Automatic annotation (TrEMBL):
The keyword Nucleotide-binding applies. This is ABC transporter ATP-binding protein. Residues 17-263 form the ABC transporter domain. InterPro entries: AAA+_ATPase (IPR003593), ABC_AA/LPS_Transport (IPR051120), ABC_transporter-like_ATP-bd (IPR003439), BCA_ABC_TP_C (IPR032823), P-loop_NTPase (IPR027417). Residues 280-294 have a biased composition (Basic and acidic residues). Pfam families: ABC_tran (PF00005), BCA_ABC_TP_C (PF12399).
Length: 294
């Protein structure tokens, strides 16, 4: 059983993801232990915890990369098969902690690869390149371009992926994942290695993805990002779910502070800091005015 569910919220009525009792053992090591998690339509849910807590392993159980030792994972009420391409087809897409683009393909080609689960044209049609195939190809390209516009990469459509700056490679991974038209997007450390502006842009992009109707489950170590972004946050520690709740509940939970957050999260500046800034500004204005009159 999970250690605490008192702070968790009731599952949303239109549950997109429902993971129940997910356990993953590697030999003698239990990486994930009896974890329940739901994601509702229109929700952004965060998954946080110390290094080695089992977050990525849990993602791998959700996406069919691993067959959980125990437990089930359902998407929109249907138990998912343990095959990653079937999970993608069902409606779950993901990005990886380490960027996994096709480095020598163009930006557009990378997105088109992500589109193939949604195209019905078979090998024969592709070889014959008949009108039906060409129409499907055009539609795929239109959709890929829409996604490049959406992620701000349209101007780079013909650039080779490996030549993009790091932040744009991460965006491209998201565009490629969105190409399968997922109902749920899983993001594994989307802001790792980003500067503050790139992190802010990623936050806006995730909100926009949610606003377009895709629910999001995100692993991240950047707590400011997580607490600004998420409707709900679950904390994994040593493979178990320790706490789940709103950002405010999780930030204030003594056990989370002890096991992971350490000192309380510093979000917006406090009253004292604001007063200091105002005093400094007043001081510098007074000096400037003094200079002007001198
Ligand atoms: N394929 C595997 N075989 C054996 N052990 C594994 C495997 N994958 C993960 N583990 C172990 O499972 C535990 C959980 O690892 P996992 O990568 O899921 O943690 P995490 O919370 O994602 O960590 P981080 O924040 O550092 O990415 C670790 O002890 C890890 O060494």
């Amino acid at each position: 059983m999970t250690t605490d569910t008192t702070t968790s919220q009731a599952p949303a009525r239109d549950t997109v993801l429902d993971a129940t009792g997910v356990t993953m053992r590697f030999g003698g090591l239990t990486a994930v232990s009896d974890v329940d998690l739901t994601v509702g339509g229109g929700e952004i849910v965060g998954l946080i915890g110390p290094n080695g807590a089992g977050k990525t392993t849990f993602f791998n159980c959700l996406t069919g990369l691993y067959i959980p030792t125990e437990g089930t994972v359902s998407y929109r009420g249907k138990v998912l098969p343990h095959r990653s391409h079937l999970v993608t087809q069902a409606g779950i897409a993901r990005t990886f902690q380490n960027i996994r683009l096709f480095p020598n393909m163009t930006v557009l080609e990378n997105v088109l690869v992500g589109r193939h689960t949604r195209t019905k044209e078979g090998l024969v049609a592709a070889l014959l390149r008949g009108p039906r195939f060409k129409k499907a190809e055009r539609e795929s390209e239109d959709r890929a371009m829409e996604l490049l516009e959406f992620t701000g990469l349209a101007a780079k459509r013909d650039h080779i992926a490996r030549n993009l700056p790091y932040g744009e490679q991460r965006k491209l991974e998201i565009a490629r994942a969105l190409a399968s038209d997922p109902g749920l997007l899983l993001l594994d450390e989307p802001t790792a290695g980003m500067n503050p502006q790139e992190t802010r842009a990623t936050q806006d992009l995730v909100f926009a993805i949610r606003d377009q109707g895709t629910a999001v489950l995100v692993i991240e170590h950047d707590m400011r990002f997580i607490f600004n972004l998420c409707d709900r946050v679950a904390v994994l520690v040593q493979g178990r779910k320790l706490v789940e709740g709103t950002p405010a509940v999780v930030q204030g939970d003594e056990r989370v502070i002890a096991a992971y957050l350490g000192t309380p999260f510093e979000g917006e500046p406090g009253e004292e800091e604001l007063a200091e800034v105002e005093a400094a500004e007043a001081h510098s204005t007074a000096r400037t005015e003094g200079d002007d009159t001198a």
